[in-house]
Specification:
Blueprint: H1 6-27, H2 54-71, H3 76-92, H4 99-111, H5 121-145, H6 149-164, H7 171-174, H8 176-192, H9 199-217, H10 229-244, H11 251-257, H12 261-272, E1 297-303, H13 304-309, H14 312-315, E2 319-320, E3 324-328, H15 329-337, H16 345-353, E4 365-370
Amino acid sequence: MIKDNSCSQIRVITRITAIACLTSMLLCYKLWLGERVFPTSPVFNHLLKLNHPFDIILFCITIISLLCISLFRNPQKFIISFLVCATLLAILDQNRWQPWFYQYVTMFFIVSFFNFRCDDSRHQHAITTIFKLMIGTIYFWSGLQKLNPNFLSETYPWLMEPITKHLAEGAIKDLNWLGKSFPIIETLTGLALFVSPVKKIAVILIFIMHLFILFVLGPFGQNYNPVVWPWNIVMMIFSFILFFNNEIITYTQVREMLRYHSIKIVSVLFILMPLFNFFDLWDSYLSHNLYSGNTSNGVIYVSENLQARLPETIKSFSTGDSDQKQINIKYWCMQELGVPAYPEKRNFKTISRSFYKYATDSSDVYFLFVPKLKLINL
């Protein structure tokens, strides 16, 4: 039987989610503005760009909504306000569909239908149940995504650099066993959260995993992608709140959970749809494909003539010989906006098309798409 603290758990998780989302959005504030060098990539090609000062107004309303969610005892109207702003921001630029933002938005969507009066125990229990399934799902799918050769050959050695640089040369080869076992451990940890005898061990493993990620990505490691640092912290907190001292989920609870249409939607999108990413039928960032080394990329090649006409702020990101320069879209986005570019072909193509306004001939621009490995190659 579910404990009666489900309502207090929802309140705490909602506030923590708001603080984490607010912090990450401020760390990459340029991503949410319309006036910037890196082009926006709207969902619909002919959608108008939100220019100054309306972009700043929308961003400020979003931040204020998150602040109010973290402070008020009944933040339902502020959650709805945030969801409206977040939806508009997401439509205007696909690069805002970062995995942490996607998780926070779906969690807020679930609690937007909750009255926060703690007088509906059935709804409370349904919300905590879907939260548990969401957290476990992230580790399960994220671990499976790492079962590819790129993780062991590229991502894992890069993650281990802050450690191996203090060891003897070639030490990474002696630690290959850890790289091979990491995806399996992460996947099994996601499943173990729902097995009573080992769920506390799973929570401890999650703490160790996130502390390791915070070290290697933090200022003492690669000092990379600061927007995900708060996300790693809240994932530890969520795991402790939802799993450490709570009973495991039963079939009856899942059945009761699915009585709510909002939770049905999240169950399909967040839990089931990631399977289709292995067949290139669903986006990587919406499938918990995180630091796997297996996401798509795009490179823009520009002629010498076009290079001369580019703004200086873009030229600084172009590399290569004098005849043809190349711009790595992911790197450019990370350096300017503080997040990786959304790794889908349609997004990269939209970014590359923005270079035609500087070109005199279509041959001045060449777009190269580098797809993720297919299931047969994993």
